[in-house]
Design a protein that fits this description.
homodimer; 455 residues; alpha+beta; Chloramphenicol Acetyltransferase; 2 domains; six-stranded mixed β-sheet; 13 helices; acyltransferase (chains A, B); EC 2.3.1.20 (chains A, B)
């Protein structure tokens, strides 16, 4: 029996019918060499036999003296958690994304361990997929990505690699995925009192007091400058997931041409796609959109402390010229990093937390604050180096499926794998119609930057 | 804009994460003669073109002055409502039932019209299925069944039959599906005040007062006699659906042998299956289980009024002998019908409503009342006569998918079609483990009765 941390409790509190708080990952595999046509069905049979479930996947939510705790589920029903499913004809990536869109919209059963793994057959070209869904209170996004990587091997000949729910438990454990999270920012701002979170109204009141004080402080005034946009409306319960891979070599060639980082280029791709999308919706704000971008602040000589900060990246969506837009984004990101370089760890924590606080306040109360600190989340999560295999099946791509929230209707999460940058976009299907078109706009943006650089 | 009736509002109030309030229907079809192998994919393409959506399927929930109303959805997204999906290998009925179990567990998006139609390919033997899901606040179970029948034709050569969401609206409209429903019983007991339902606590208090008075009244005392059982626990959010057809000729042969009705025999089959299931779970109560069985009370000379009553059928699950059990069930059903024959319409309404009130009280408050009036719902809904086709595809079977509720973890709904009796069992997957075994027990029961009758 393990009590839930206050942070993990918040993920349960924040969850509502139209705002599920689970994260997901989509892994696309190709059949091993020489595998039979019914390979996926056989794999499903083997996975059904993997009935020994290891922590945290064997833990379900319970209450002791009114406090939420994780306890071992004595009646774990693997058939509920592991599901073998199929795509309809013609089994393209489009059908796969539809499948994930629908599944990611569904709340999970709170009486059971909060995870599901869907093995998906019916993809064209001898491919199959795994869609894994885990509640954020059980595993955070980065830990989930690490686990999904731990079940893979660089060796195509290695067998007996267990599924994620049967991995041997790790000694060190997670917990230290760092900041950059709305919920962690709440906890930091509340300090010690956050460790004994009382009720949501109390938390919200404390948060509002802190934020209102910060708004008068010149050091933080620059935080409150994001425009209103259609990305920042209330959301509904149904999701659209869109995902695609781009070659890291192409992106690196653009970096070299302009003297920017990979992160600058992918941020500029997102900026350009958002600009085109909003223009087509006749909804581009005059003022530039602001993205919240978590960044690693780890220095080689640092010890302990919180190593993730957030940058409020000006996306310069008011700028028509793609090259100028990239350069300005690069300059802004660089300036933000320089500012962080001169901050103490305590100052970094404060700045990060205050940046996230208005969004957190809205999440807790449902009230739209009079100020918006950012319009969209663009998160880049490190992925595995080099090719990976799962019992001989080559991992072709992996795409993060994150969380859309009220007033943050779109989340763009990226990861890297095998000389690819993998984009996973999750959004509210009603607030953001035809969200999948952003994939075309992302591609247009990269092509445009290549052309401008004469590549 | 149409205000929701108080009854329909109650279905929204009663819904919670682990208790969705939608009803469903599963229709199994075979391919038309000479249809190509990709028939279902082509059908999906044709159905996607059916973008004119007729009432009530174009109505979504909204609020005006705090009151729920149905308004036309101006941004209806057919892709959200109509879904083309596939079963995994090997595409047996078992995979179909798994699919429906999972889908029926998911809440629907309240921002949109509350219905979904899933076209399912990948079944063996050139078959396909339609699973239709409609919120009970939009359409009640019997109306849904009627609509599902209206889209079919007795003529295998008829084409251009629209899907359910594009049916021409009916002039008469529904609303008069009669009693037998928990929610309608609440409304009746509250009389005029029920027409302006205030808050749930008010409704519950009024209900409790009425029920407590009835308990002292000798005329109603017999209502409060059901034992406690595992069927009457709190439920979780995940469902198991089990369905199968039995030949009406076999059932009628048993009827003739024992001089009972078809309804008596199917009730005895349910009784026997419940007895075996609970014995195997070591959970058969000493006292016999009581089923709530809605019955039609329409007489040829009656005009108006409520024509559905409920019978509290003693299932005699304490009786070991299957023949004696059937006979006793028959006698009990007959006695209940005779009692109804001597009641005035007002008395019928009161009796029905009071029978259902303790369950309704529990639903509203979450409190388990000290008395249980019945353990399980066994409902027999009339189906179409003769063979039906949908644009040349023969309907092979249709199975109702009803609602499991707190303290009523199992619902057994039956219908008739083309010389078959179709059973649809829906239950909470955790409260009632391996519920699907009931299908075997139902079959065993019929075989046993046949053998005893020397058939």
């Amino acid at each position: 029996m393990t009590p839930l941390s206050p942070t993990d409790q918040l993920f349960l509190w924040l969850e509502k019918r139209q705002q599920p708080m689970h994260v997901g990952g989509l892994q696309l595999f190709s059949f091993p060499e020489g595998a039979p046509d019914d390979y996926v069905a056989r794999l499903a049979g083997q996975l059904r036999e993997q009935s020994v479930v290891t922590p945290p996947f064997n833990q379900h939510l319970d209450y002791r003296l009114g406090q939420p705790v994780w306890v071992e589920d004595k009646h774990l029903d693997l058939e509920h958690h592991f599901r073998f499913e199929a795509l309809p004809t013609p089994g393209r990536i489009r059908e796969l994304l539809s499948f994930v869109s629908a599944e990611h919209s569904h709340l999970m059963d709170r009486e059971r361990p909060l995870w599901e793994v869907h093995l998906i057959e019916g993809l064209k070209d001898r491919q199959f997929a795994l869609y894994t869904k885990v509640h954020h209170s059980l595993v955070d996004g980065i830990s989930a990505m690490r686990m999904a990587t731990r079940m893979l091997s660089p060796d195509p000949d290695q067998r007996d690699l267990p599924p994620i729910w049967a991995l041997p438990p790790r000694v060190s454990g997670g917990g230290e995925d760092g900041g950059g999270s709305l919920v962690r920012s709440i906890r930091h701002l509340l300090g010690e009192s956050g460790r004994q979170l009382g009720t949501v109204p109390t938390v919200a009141r404390e948060l509002l007091k802190t934020v209102n004080e910060a708004r008068k402080d010149p050091a933080y005034r620059s935080i409150f400058h994001a425009p209103r946009s259609m990305l920042n409306q209330k959301i509904t319960g149904s999701r659209r997931f869109a995902a695609q891979s781009w070659s890291l070599s192409r992106i690196k060639a653009v970096c070299h041409a302009y003297g920017t980082t990979v992160n600058d280029v992918v941020t500029a791709m997102c900026a350009s796609a958002l600009r085109t999308y909003l223009m087509n919706q006749d909804a581009l704000p005059d003022k530039p959109l602001i993205a919240m971008v978590p960044v690693s602040l780890r220095k080689d000589d640092s010890t302990g402390g919180n190593h993730v900060g957030v940058i409020l990246a000006n996306l310069h969506t008011d700028e028509n010229d793609p090259e100028k837009r990239l350069i300005r984004i690069h300059e802004g990101m660089q300036a933000a990093k320089d500012r962080y370089a001169h901050m103490s760890p305590e100052e970094i924590l404060n700045y990060t937390a205050l940046t996230l606080a208005p969004a957190a306040f809205h999440l807790l109360t449902g009230m739209a604050p009079a100020w918006q600190t950012f319009n969209v989340v663009i998160s880049n999560v490190p992925g595995p180096d080099g090719t990976r295999y799962w019992n001989g099946a080559k991992l072709e791509g992996l795409y993060p499926v994150s969380i859309a929230m009220d007033r943050l209707a779109l989340n763009m999460t990226l990861t890297s794998y095998n000389n690819q940058v993998e984009f996973g976009l999750i959004g509210c299907r009603r607030t953001l119609p035809s969200l999948q078109r952003m994939l075309d706009y992302l591609d247009d943006s990269l092509t445009e930057l290549e052309a401008a650089a004469g590549l």
